[in-house]
Design goal:
The chain is mainly α and 130 residues long. It contains 7 helices and no strands.
């Protein structure tokens, strides 16, 4: 069963309105959420994390592949910042918590995009023998 189908089943049993999920994902309409739930629009790692949070489940419950991507991205961040265990950034969790929802999503998206870019760059160097 595809990730969208599993996610759709979890959503149906949750009772959470699509409009609530749309707010979590910061998308323009419930229609975009519907497209993700039916597989017409792809679900990326960030969207998967927001779906999981909104539905009270784990990304692994509907997409082990996206969960692995999230774990891999998380493991590549320097965790020697002196912040709480598992907090990967040099700024404090409290500072992040003071941001608005939109700003938090932008930070998360930028971090994930940079991590993926670094991983691709590293993989290219390894394949070139560098």
């Amino acid at each position: 069963m595809a990730a969208a189908e599993k996610l759709h089943e979890i959503w149906k049993s949750s009772g959470v309105p699509q409009s609530t999920i749309a707010d979590q994902l910061d998308v323009q309409s419930q229609g975009q959420v519907s497209q993700m739930l039916t597989g017409k629009r792809p679900i990326n790692a960030i969207a998967a994390a927001h779906f999981a949070r909104a539905l009270g489940c784990k990304v692994d419950d509907f997409s082990p592949e996206l969960a692995d991507e999230i774990r891999m991205a998380s493991a590549t961040v320097n965790k020697s910042s002196g912040n709480p265990e598992g907090w990967p950034f040099s700024f404090s969790p409290e500072r992040f918590d003071r941001l608005g929802r939109d700003e938090k999503q932008r930070v998360e998206g930028a971090a994930l995009a940079l991590i993926l870019e670094f991983e691709m760059h590293s993989a290219q160097h390894k394949s070139n023998g560098s």
